[in-house]
Amino acid sequence: ENMNLVVVLLALTATTTSAFAPISRATSSSIKSIAPAPLVAMQSTTSTTSSNDGGSATAEDKQHLYVPSKRDEYYQGNVARYLLDLNEEKATFDFCGGMMFQLVLTDKLKSHLQKVSTSQPDRPIMHPASQPLMNRIPDYYKSSYADNIGLFHGREIRRVPNANGGMGFVLQLSYADPTTFSNKESNDGKAVDPQGWSSEEITTYDGWRGDTYRKWRNAATYVDEGFDSFFSQFGKEAYGLNHRFYLHLDNQNRMWLSAEDGCEGTPKDGSGGLLGKLGGFLFG
C-alpha cells in the first residue's frame, strides 16, 4: 500500500511545471544527482520566537503570521517587521500546493529590515491583488535590479538538512543595493551581501525565463563565487537557483511571495501534509 502511494505521488510530481520543480529539469546545469544529505541541524542566526510579554509563543500567539486579518491587525502595514517575524519563526511558505519552503533572510537583509521597521521610508510593500505577476507592477523591467522595497533578490535552495517543512527546501531573501545599478533596466549592480547574490548571479540573471534554460548552482559553486558560509549554513549537498521576488496580495487578502517567473507561495503553518512527511524524498 505504501509503495502504491509513493508511485502515485511520483506520477503527480512528474506533472509539476514551475520554476520550483526538481533539479532534473535543469538541463543547463552541470549539477549531478545528489544523494540525500545527513539529518543534521541547519545552522542559522535565528532564535526562539517569543510572545510580546517575553514568554514562549503558542500556536494561538502565531495566528498573526498566517491569518490575514490577524496579520493586518498586528502589523498595521509594517511589512519589514512581518518578514523579520516570519524568519524568526522559521515559517514555511506553501509553493505549488504542498512544497514547503522555509523562509531564511540573510544577516544583511535582516539588519536592513530591522532599521526600516522603525521608520516609514524604504519599508517593503505588498503589491495589490491587481498585480498578481511581477511583470504587472509599475516600472517592471527584465533585469537584476532590486531595491528591498518592491523587489528582492532571493534563491530557492534545496537539499538543506532539517529545513522547516520537512522537505529540505529553503526560500532565501538577500540584500541588494539599488544605488549600485546604473538604472532599473540594467544588470550592472554590485554584490554587497556576503550571503546574497554573487557578481556572476547579478550580471547573468535571467529569471523571467523557464528554469530549464537557467543555471543552477551547487554548494561548491556558491563558495567559489564568494558565499563562504554556504556549507555551514545549508550543507555541502545543497544546490539552488536565484530569483527576483516580490510580495503581493490576492482577493482573499493573503500575502504571496512570488518569483519573477510566476511561481509563488503563501505563509502556511504546517509540514506540507503527506508530501512533507516524505522528507524531501520526491523533490530532492
Compact description:
With 284 residues, the protein is of the alpha+beta class. The protein has helices spanning 2-14, 63-66, 68-75, 79-88, 107-116, 199-203, 219-224, 230-234, 273-277; strands at 92-95, 99-105, 152-158, 169-174, 217-218, 239-249, 255-259, 264-268.
Spatial arrangement of strands, main beta sheet: 1-2-4-3-6-7-8
For the biggest sheet, the summary is: 7 strands, mixed, barrel
| Uncertain regions spanning at least 5 consecutive residues | 5-18, 22-41, 43-56, 279-283
Rough outline: globular
Mean pLDDT rating:
83
Fraction of residues in helices?
Answer: 10-25%
Sequence of secondary-structure elements: HHHHEEHEEHEHHEEEH
SS elements, strand count: 8
C-alpha-based Rg, rounded: 18 Å
DSSP summary: helix tally:
9
Oligomeric composition of the shown chains: single chain
By secondary-structure content and strand pairing, the structural class works out as alpha+beta
Strand percent estimate: 15-25%
Distance between the termini: 23 Å
How is this structure best described in words?
The protein has 284 residues and is of the alpha+beta class. 23% of the residues lie in helices and 17% in strands. It is globular and about 45 Å long. The two termini are 23 Å apart. Mean pLDDT is 83; it is low at 5-18, 22-41, 43-56 and 279-283.
Task: Lay out the secondary structure.
Layout: H1 2-14, H2 63-66, H3 68-75, H4 79-88, E1 92-95, E2 99-105, H5 107-116, E3 152-158, E4 169-174, H6 199-203, E5 217-218, H7 219-224, H8 230-234, E6 239-249, E7 255-259, E8 264-268, H9 273-277
Parallel strand pairs: 2-4
Antiparallel strand pairs: 1-2, 1-8, 3-4, 3-6, 5-6, 6-7, 7-8
